[in-house]
Design a protein that fits this description.
Elements (H helix, E strand, L loop, with lengths): L8 H13 L2 H8 L3 H15 L4 E4 L2 E4 L1 H21 L12 E6 L1 H18 L4 E6 L5 H7 L4 E5 L8 E8 L1 E6 L11 H6 L1 E5 L9 H7 L6 E6 L2 H10 L3 E5 L9 E4 L8 E7 L7 H14 L7
Parallel strand pairs: 3-4, 3-5, 8-9, 8-10
Antiparallel strand pairs: 1-2, 5-12, 6-12, 7-10, 7-11
Length: about 300
């Protein structure tokens, strides 16, 4: 037999058709080819297998013993190739897929928490690993398969990635119910006087989006605490007389905290899910993303 690269799929399909039909004309009709084309392929098959494979008879062609030996292996190969080309079936209820998501701790509370609850209901055997976001290397991490999905903002998504909007977020003021300023009208001047806390991941630890909005009006506020965790900040707000400007979804289930609109306009942000081309067409990952979009859609927004 000649080298494998001389034997293409069309030759195997022709051999299979000739074995079934025992007639060159009928085999050509089945393959939607001309009779000369099938005859030419038969010539190549004979060269590849170093055997006549078929001999002429009054009613068509008769397979040689070598051709009969090839009949079942060829059908098996063609069936396996056909199976390979079929879309992978995905059953959420029994899937044991492991998926890794990268997110900030804000996204853990606002996005991953409700997503996990829904995922446990629909795909209880699926495993989910959650890790902190590394925005500087997110493209490389997705490309290498170290993470499968990243929760980012529109400003931080690399152009090479697939991305889809999850929701638009807005900021609210939050304080504990027994805060000394609870219940009083919060003017802009009073807002600037109160002790406040913020979350800062980098840059100036005592300045954020609120401070930039105040600076546009030549104002400053009193930021007495800076932390690098939204979840820690929420815990602090419950126990201290600190005020914080936080994303609404972060505290939508925190009954111990009072929320109200800031006394100035503070730009919000848009959260997106981003993924790499390597998982773009994978049935399980596509299903997983659709669940995420459903859970995080603006129609599910509370508070």
């Amino acid at each position: 037999m000649r080298e494998l690269h001389h034997l293409d799929l069309n030759l195997l399909k022709t051999l299979d058709a000739l074995l079934d039909e025992r007639n060159v004309t009928r085999a050509a009709e089945r393959l939607s080819l001309t009779q000369p084309a099938v005859s030419a392929m038969l010539t190549r098959l004979r060269e590849s297998f170093n055997d006549p494979l078929f001999v002429r008879s009054q009613r068509g062609v008769i397979p040689t013993p070598r051709a009969l030996e090839l009949a079942q292996p060829v059908k098996r190969i063609l069936h396996d190739i056909q199976t390979l080309m079929q879309p992978e079936r995905f059953e959420p209820a029994t899937s044991t897929l492991t998926v890794t998501i990268a997110a900030t701790d804000y996204a853990l509370r606002a996005i991953v928490d409700p997503f996990i609850r829904e995922l446990r209901r629909r795909a209880p055997a699926m495993r989910l690993a959650v890790r902190g976001i590394d925005e500087a290397n997110v493209r490389q991490l997705l490309e290498k398969g170290e993470i499968d999905l990243a929760i980012l903002t529109t400003q931080t998504v690399p152009e090479e990635l697939h991305a889809r909007r999850l929701y638009d977020e807005e900021y609210v003021c939050a304080m504990r119910a027994r805060h000394p300023a609870a219940g009083e009208p919060l003017s802009l001047a009073r807002f600037c006087e109160l002790d406040q806390a913020l979350v800062s991941y980098s840059g100036d630890p005592f300045s954020g989006v609120t401070d930039r909005a105040l600076a546009a009006q030549n104002l400053t506020r009193r930021v007495s605490l800076s932390v690098d965790s939204f979840l820690f900040l929420v815990a602090l707000l419950k126990e201290t007389d600190l005020l914080a400007v936080v994303p609404r979804r972060l505290i939508r289930e925190e009954d111990a905290l009072l929320t109200f609109a800031p006394p100035l306009a503070i730009p919000g942000f848009t959260k997106v899910a981003a993924w790499h081309e390597r998982t773009h067409h994978h049935p399980a990952h596509r299903w997983l993303r659709e669940v995420l979009f459903e859970v995080c859609g603006d129609n599910n927004r509370q508070g």
